[in-house]
């Protein structure tokens, strides 16, 4: 006979953890919902690159809506069945993997844009971008659900505690997930490899852009606006990748330490900091877009004014379209 999931009463440290995580979740959801609204409101942003950015924003919204609340529940010592805990843990992996693959899709898109600018629009169409987004999410589900097929800790738990599948356990990520899966498959296979490809792509993007700008400068040609715009956008998106690496590397390094050095004990505060950093990453991307991409910033300011500063005495200001504003800012992306 199984019991329903139970949670122990929160202590002071738990309340602090919940407060910080709740603040991160709110910032992540609000910021990334604004990203989606900005892309919907500004027609000039409805291109293939921002299609992938919206996919990344959806994953970050899921972090705030699903991942962080689940992390809070698990941290409080949820008592549940093994496969219930495992399915919740797999959900965290799916969303993380979708972020990585969305970043990779963005890097490939920008690489093609600077490498084959004349053929880019015929090769990278909007429909193909939608297909690529769907493939990213399908791959994320397939890789994230691998532990459900048997690569998990059920055998170790049965051996150590002599439990049946229907018995309750205290749900912890490390209790149900095998470290060899997290290190070899998840980290080395689906984090390090995609990030290495992204770094190589952005290095090539910057090389090509610099080369093109130098050639145009020598030829005294003023047609370098295109590559100047691409350079600014590439720097912004490369910053997003850099922040992802900085925020997610610590928790993966801790997993590697626990796996390769079982006797080494990672301090619990360090684990909490690593978890916080991985969640904070979801709230940082909208800030990068707002501060680094002028079109995005202009549209965001306009949406904020329309939603928060509209006055009934000045009805003409509310329905103002973003089209004229976006066209005016197109060159200044």
UniProtKB/TrEMBL annotation:
SUPFAM superfamilies: Family A G protein-coupled receptor-like. Residues 31-289 form the G-protein coupled receptors family 1 profile domain. Belongs to the G-protein coupled receptor 1 family. It is a multi-pass membrane protein. It holds the Pfam family 7tm_1. The keyword Cytoplasm does not apply. It is found in: Cell membrane. InterPro entries: Adenosn_rcpt, GPCR_Rhodpsn, GPCR_Rhodpsn_7TM. The chain crosses the membrane at residues 15-38, 50-74, 86-108, 129-148, 187-206, 233-251. GO terms for cellular component: dendrite; plasma membrane; synapse. GO terms for molecular function: G protein-coupled adenosine receptor activity. Keywords: Cell membrane, Disulfide bond, G-protein coupled receptor, Glycoprotein, Membrane, Receptor, Transducer, Transmembrane, Transmembrane helix. This is Adenosine receptor A1. It comes from the Eukaryota. Its main location: membrane.
